[in-house]
Design goal:
By secondary structure, the protein is an alpha+beta fold. The chain contains 6 helices and 15 strands. A hairpin with an 8-residue loop joins β6 and β7.
Length: 209
């Protein structure tokens, strides 16, 4: 029996909500968190998540002050990292505070990878084209309800001027029955047909579609 993967669905929804407010439409999350929510690597296998550079600063958990501190590395004679730590210069009783390597390993979720995955999943006629930086992708044409329609993935849908930019965008104005795919529910209904991405993505057992 196929069961909904509620943990992974919740993580995906959370990533969409974070991306909606991210300045560069990229969301970073610790690899150890992903290993708990997605132990089978579904998001990474689908190329929705990719490895990123390790953190070079971190919120220190040495005390209740929770300061943001740069990460220091100690290396062996072969140049391999043997220890990660932060140096506390706020209090006299803390000194060097060890950091678990797993807290520094990061994964990255980007609008670009999301656009590529959605276009592939919906079998559009070409690769996505970014028509507005970190905000709007033209995914191409796909068959929706027995009609060929232009699909657009839209981030930051609740920015004050987005609806105006959508109505003025030449690519959208020339599109055939355009459909907006938004990351979250818009506060104001767009003049163009729209669907919320999380309502058309389904995680079942170890599959996503």
């Amino acid at each position: 029996m196929v069961k909904n993967n509620l943990i992974l669905s919740s993580l995906f929804l959370n990533l969409l909500e974070q991306m909606e407010t991210a300045k560069d439409s990229s969301v970073f999350l610790p690899k150890n968190r992903l290993s708990v929510s997605d132990p089978s690597g579904i998001l990474q296998n689908s190329k929705l998540i990719e490895d990123s550079q390790p953190l070079d600063s971190i919120i220190c958990n040495g005390c209740e002050w929770r300061c943001l501190k740069p990460v220091q590395m100690r290396y062996d004679q072969d140049g391999l990292v043997t220890k990660a730590f932060v140096i506390c210069d706020e209090r006299d009783d803390m000194g060097n505070i060890a950091i678990d390597f797993r807290h520094l390993e990061m994964q990255k979720f980007t609008l670009n990878h999301l656009a590529e995955w959605v276009a592939q999943a919906l079998s559009t006629n070409r690769k996505p084209q970014e028509i507005e930086a970190n905000s709007i992708f033209h995914l191409g044409v796909a068959k929706v309800e027995n009609k060929h329609r232009d699909l657009f993935l839209v981030c930051h849908v609740n920015q004050p001027d987005l609806l105006q930019r959508l109505s003025q965008n030449l690519t959208i104005r020339q599109a055939v029955d355009p459909v907006l795919i938004t990351l979250i529910l818009p506060k104001s209904k767009p003049i163009i047909s729209f669907v919320i991405l999380s309502t058309i993505v389904l995680f079942e057992d170890n599959n996503i579609g």
